[in-house]
Write a structure and sequence with these properties.
The structure is a homotetramer.
Chain A: H1 7-24, H2 28-36, H3 48-57, H4 78-88, H5 94-97, H6 104-114, H7 117-128, E1 133-137, E2 154-158, E3 161-172, E4 179-187, E5 198-204, E6 210-215, E7 228-239, H8 250-286, E8 288-289, E9 292-293, H9 298-332, H10 334-358, H11 370-380, H12 387-402
Parallel strand pairs in A: 1-4
Antiparallel strand pairs in A: 2-3, 3-7, 4-5, 6-7, 8-9
Amino acid sequence: MSFEYSDRVLELRARVQGFMAEHVFPRELEYAHWVENPENAWMYPPWFEDLKSRAKAAGIWNWFLPREYEEHSPGLSNLEFAPIMEVMCQVPWAQEVFNCSAPDRGNMEVLARYGSEQQKRQWLEPLLDGRIRSAFSMTEPAVASSDASNLETTIVRDGDEYVINGRKWFTSNAYNPNCRLLVVMGRSNPEAPRHQRFSMILVPLDTTGVVLERPLRVFSNVHSPGGHAEVRYDNVRVPVENLIAGEGRGFEIAQGRLGPGRFQYAMMFVGMAQRCLDLMCRRVESRVAFGEKLADKTSIQHDIARSRCEIEQCRLLVLAAADRMDRYGAKGARDYISMVKIVAPEMCQRVADRALQAHGGMGVTEDTPISRIYLTSRYCRIADGPDEVHMSQLGRQTIRAAL
Amino acid sequence: MSFEYSDRVLELRARVQGFMAEHVFPRELEYAHWVENPENAWMYPPWFEDLKSRAKAAGIWNWFLPREYEEHSPGLSNLEFAPIMEVMCQVPWAQEVFNCSAPDRGNMEVLARYGSEQQKRQWLEPLLDGRIRSAFSMTEPAVASSDASNLETTIVRDGDEYVINGRKWFTSNAYNPNCRLLVVMGRSNPEAPRHQRFSMILVPLDTTGVVLERPLRVFSNVHSPGGHAEVRYDNVRVPVENLIAGEGRGFEIAQGRLGPGRFQYAMMFVGMAQRCLDLMCRRVESRVAFGEKLADKTSIQHDIARSRCEIEQCRLLVLAAADRMDRYGAKGARDYISMVKIVAPEMCQRVADRALQAHGGMGVTEDTPISRIYLTSRYCRIADGPDEVHMSQLGRQTIRAAL
Amino acid sequence: MSFEYSDRVLELRARVQGFMAEHVFPRELEYAHWVENPENAWMYPPWFEDLKSRAKAAGIWNWFLPREYEEHSPGLSNLEFAPIMEVMCQVPWAQEVFNCSAPDRGNMEVLARYGSEQQKRQWLEPLLDGRIRSAFSMTEPAVASSDASNLETTIVRDGDEYVINGRKWFTSNAYNPNCRLLVVMGRSNPEAPRHQRFSMILVPLDTTGVVLERPLRVFSNVHSPGGHAEVRYDNVRVPVENLIAGEGRGFEIAQGRLGPGRFQYAMMFVGMAQRCLDLMCRRVESRVAFGEKLADKTSIQHDIARSRCEIEQCRLLVLAAADRMDRYGAKGARDYISMVKIVAPEMCQRVADRALQAHGGMGVTEDTPISRIYLTSRYCRIADGPDEVHMSQLGRQTIRAAL
Amino acid sequence: MSFEYSDRVLELRARVQGFMAEHVFPRELEYAHWVENPENAWMYPPWFEDLKSRAKAAGIWNWFLPREYEEHSPGLSNLEFAPIMEVMCQVPWAQEVFNCSAPDRGNMEVLARYGSEQQKRQWLEPLLDGRIRSAFSMTEPAVASSDASNLETTIVRDGDEYVINGRKWFTSNAYNPNCRLLVVMGRSNPEAPRHQRFSMILVPLDTTGVVLERPLRVFSNVHSPGGHAEVRYDNVRVPVENLIAGEGRGFEIAQGRLGPGRFQYAMMFVGMAQRCLDLMCRRVESRVAFGEKLADKTSIQHDIARSRCEIEQCRLLVLAAADRMDRYGAKGARDYISMVKIVAPEMCQRVADRALQAHGGMGVTEDTPISRIYLTSRYCRIADGPDEVHMSQLGRQTIRAAL
């Protein structure tokens, strides 16, 4: 047991930190204003591709990839990648600069693990190269989708094609100007045993019958440039080759997809919470109210102390989850993955909430990243299944293990 | 002591409820989509003036006005108005339909109480009539404005004019297409005793030197059609007649302005929280996850029970505050006004938070009012001074009273 | 609607306050040391009966009794009694001085309402007179007793007698030196419809077969002089006349018993919480740490402000519940009774928790009432059914009402 | 970085687990009843010494000792000892069976590190051998002792003796039948710089002038057999050789004493919380209420999930703190030591609180360890300085580090 980062991790992290300091932090406010401006809907800032090129040139690219893809990345373990991820996520959009952003990361992992050679050539390569983006289309408006067995979209074989019908929403990234691919989950085998009824299939965005109904607003923000689409699938036909792995394997793939994604999500919240705490510490040193520096008020000190304790604990939990995943795989790390999913967004929201109060009016504006972090945290207590679903599952597993 | 609403209150409330049911609720979603659409920035929906006319025709207009203005309103006490306010606020923008919305309400009260005859004629009448809107310009970006003695904007007499210089923000309503008037607070008498250094003055929006720098985004929403402006006052000159009440009375007026406003704010949160709870109750009856209706899950039942308890308690507290204000005035009700300011937004945010979780993805979208209510509550834990300032004040007063 | 206490209430309350100041507060610490001393187990302090006589002489006696018993009490409504109750409960054992203590109060109400003339003569009169005490025997160790339909104790008719068998615990007051009577709930009609299977019966404490197995420790305190007994009923035989009201009416009686009791309980927590807050306010004025009075630390101010807000809200809720009970009876006030049961102990524990922290080491000792109040609050989140049961019930009712 | 326990730790922990299973758990309830019984005040159960002998014979003895004392213990690092400590603490009194209990552990560490050869011979050896016990006398009733510079007890040199005068309380262990030694902190050099005014001195318990005034009750429990004494020092004279390390070094020694002690404390809470969770899991599987196993209620599942998350995070934090202490010493680990002091008792209390609710009435009785764990946690949010003091300190340090 040891709590020190290895020299290699420290070295790689320092490289990322350098890149962040030189290229990302200076553009943080500019990016915020760009995406908030409705005139820029579904467009990246003009300099964004250049930043990606620089990251690629610097070799900070696709680092999320598991060891077997060492030609594309340094082949980091999850435990090694986690502390680097934390740094990348201090400014959330930096993840895409390093080609590590959701939902593309998860889609790439699915293709790498379950895709056919042709699927890899056609979709994985341009994704790994950052030339195209992709979306993940699972949640449906008509049912409680956190219980995936409720999903109603159908995938029906008809000769050499599958026909897809249904309505999805929260299909994130579908409005991205570079999006070309939808990864769709639907019911293919209604008569099969409960967990073998669903399949996952690749649908090019420009397929006939794919209708983007509207960009959803999340807390009144469309989250440009990726967006969250409500999508209608209206007799959408794709060749049978587009099925991933085989009929009835949708659940299995979804499970495998979620593990690393959730741990990455969780580390993002650690990074963002740390960011809020740093901003808060600086703010309270610089403001005076009622004859006293904010930093000298015990209520502020306590808020900072609590935040520190919560961040530190969550960081350790995410690292422990990453370590579990390395040693026992997503299944063996299941409880830990539930735990970080439950703990991290809530922790980050609490920390952001305190930072926001300490910033007064400025806290709710676009002039600091705090309000965005606050909302991202809140949103993610719903995204990927409401926390309640994960708590019930973790609770049941804990009981079972204790008997 | 009695906890029953009087027949008069019940009758008036029923009238408002009828109006809400007929005219407001059916347009709730439409309004939401209108203001979210950037193309409609700083514009009201086309039917909005018509709704105001109908409300005025129905006599539901200016009911917030104190008894002495009985010709303009039914002359309700605060305690009588409170339960009606709750109904009006279930859809927050309805307040303006009834000419009771912030910050106009507060500005009208200031003019009614402290304004000269000429000020009343020029500004109060069109405000009472709903022809124009006004803004309140107090908070400054450079200082902790919750400690009003920090304010740096200056109001300097120069012959028959006052010259105003400074920078304000969160000047809400300044972008409103009907806004004509700014009520500005600034330092006029720097040598006077601490609480007599500030004055309040009327500044027509079109005065030379008034520069709206930008509309602030609050959680990335500009809050059209009113907006929150950052305003530069650059050698702004107004005639001395525009001063309200007299030099050095800024604090006194601000105090008087806040009492009724805060209790109204607080009741808004009760109304909005009740709305969220009602929506939640209906939602959980209609959704099934993991083989069970949401309504049958004990965690959901507990969330609803807690919400019910919190709403009920807060409602009683706001009513008690209104009653205090009627009996002892804003000063005698000071502690209660602090209490409702602290309790109500936090309560509403908690209730909205639970309703949001129970709605899954839909909760964060514009398809229900929940996400807006959630953000309004969060924002108001900062607006009008962060809760922490009010808690410190209430804490000190409680200690003093106990000795 | 009005939030002012009537002159009558104010006058009666002042009388009780006077009595408390003269006779109760001066003995508070002495009582605490008496009951903590194991040598005094199951004994009252020698002066206790004298205090009761004085209260009776002062006419402050049996005030809880409903209007129809005006010969024994001033015939107060629940709403009138509530604020007086708050004063009585600032020192919890004072309730017995005024003959208003649990579980006797509830038992007296049951006898008054459902008892036969003979039962009233034999048991109600000495209880009203304060000569004897009684216990209530419902909870069982072997089952989740909050779901009363789980109870396993049997009441079987055998000729002119009922035979009782079973094991109960938390039979509070059974060790009281003056206890003479057990009110026992058991299953009498196993084949009847679900809510008509149970009966309530009077069992003199000295009946053969009644075995007090042990005094339970509640947080390691036996709660002398009343105690909480684990009781074995071993073929206990009582005459059929001892049945209350009729076979199968146990549930109905238990429901009726709980309403006023719970509201009284709740008001006790308001009184105790207010006591803690008062003590805290005085303490923080008198202590200095790290160069600053505790009262000047914002964290302390916030703790006091939050406590004030919570007490005030809870007080209003209990008053509203009392008012409902007056107007609509226990059934019509059901939701409010659930609410105060859920809200009050938790509120009091939070307030006591803060007061305890502010007192440092002294807070956990017997030198202030805070630690006892803290534990009473905690205990009562279980007593009378865990809060969770009440929240589920309230949640379900709220959903039902909203549809 | 690695989250796996070493083989050595796993082996040693298994030995302790074996001892606990064979000797400690079977006597848990018996011990509880023994110490609760006032007739056994200040006495150990008759079998206690035998258990210590067995532990010593099994070599599980003094394991807390740092590496340099390898002849007395396996020479474990803090990080190695922590997981073993967790097992020992599942039944808190087991710590003394292994000679690792507070305050003796801390006193032994002080003597080992700062004691003279003679002090070690006279006091450290019998302590290490478990023949005597000791107390730590620092907190005073008259001042806020968490700010140690407030302490008023004096240590004045008079020839070859020091004369001690003052009043202490919470001198834990002073009533222990085996207690022979008091380690006393007092002001010796009032004119010195702030942090060099205090000294620590050894006072045999039987010295003339040492008066145990009373055993304090902590939540009405005297905590036999050790107790918490209020002690009067009335012209107590001890030879100058009894001073530890030198005049004015009291603060320095106190700091060094606290580091390992706090981390041990913290791990105790992890062990106790885990115990509560295990008991809760088993309980909810075995009880039915309202037609459903408790384990199937989502509110119970969530309570368990939250507890699991909190325990896991706190455990990791304590391990990280232990690791810091190994690598950087108590000073370098200062922030982490503050963090575990703040986090662990509160976490444990929350977990115990939920377990208590799930046990219904049984939860508050002596029939499970839950109620004791609950109170120990609550007490320790005060002991060793209220959490607020540690939060202020941690908050200030965090701000300083962020600038």
